[in-house]
Amino acid sequence: MDATLLDAEAEAAVLRVYRQVFAVLAREAGAMIVDPELLDVDQAILDAFAEAGSDGMTVEQATQACRSFPHDLVVRRFEVLRQYGAITKLVDRPNELRHRAAFAPYVMLMFLRRMSVQGGQGELHQLLTLEAHSVSDPRATEDEGQASILRLTKVFRLLGNELAILVSTSTTAQLRENAQLAWGNERLIEQAEKVHRIVLERWPTLHRDCTQLRMALAAYADAVQLAAGRLVERAGTTRALGLLPIETWLSFTRGSDTEVLAGVLDGLLFDAAAPDFSPETMLEAVETGRRTGTARMAPPRPSAETEAPESAAATDREDLRAEAERVLAGRDSVSIVSVVDDAGDWVTARRVLAELTAAHLHDELDYELVWSDGMRIDPSAGTPWATEGSFRRVTR
């Protein structure tokens, strides 16, 4: 009976902390946040409690401290945090007005902010470091070593499974958005292998569990290679600048002069007729202008007797060639203003120009897109503003 009560008490303590931590994600008592502004409201409320000191705060004081947000919104979030145990009465008695806040929700907010910037890689590195210290402790037991190996096995299985699914079912844009899953993978695998070596040397009886970890690491490494291969293949033809990690861009901008920085965007198309679009949106339009659809895994390699199927890159090349020839219509050069006018509206013209830009950037196609400094302005045209230039064949 005592053991059962102790187990129930331990489970209740875990549930209590769990509710406090995830209170910052609850929109209402049983739902999840869908508006990022609510996270800012939660952080403002917890910031106010941190400044209030040991005297705590009332609801009215919290709304005054968070007056940059709507009053009703702060009151509602305050009540949600209170329902989940993240905010409790200063003294557990009826009619108590002052409250105190737990630290767990704020830690969760910090974790979420870091996850959004680093993609969880920093936390995973720290986890592996802690696991290595834990199993290296002379007081560590075999059960603790087994638990550590099982935790890491599940982590890398989930990572590998997620990447494998993204590679086989998602578009290149979706894969690029999750590219942080593949960053720093060599270092992650090295750290996990270090934990594996320590556990296997100290407790040889855990070799079966260690084998499962090695298999999970191998599957993760294979998934990373597949993901990197797809991203590199697409980046080579679309100049998808977003594939590079932010550290690379920071180093590049700090060590480059003005001409080199300007050269990065040479040949890229920007939507001058609708300047409200952000550069990121325009880059996405250039990358996805061909509408190739969802990419699929390559089939098994055929035997020597049969003709090998054409690759996705070759298909893209021929699609671009066909579009370029359609625009040229047997001519060696065509005016960009004519191309824009023939399209009729800017949405159609933007798609055509995106494909011409891709043909210009393709290493295996003999076409060139040249812009000049002039601009045609005609209010009666479908696209009133059109930059002058030409699309032409070139001899390499």
From TrEMBL:
Biased composition (Low complexity): 303-314
Top-level taxon: Bacteria
Annotated spans, Disordered: 289-318
Entry protein name: TIGR02678 family protein
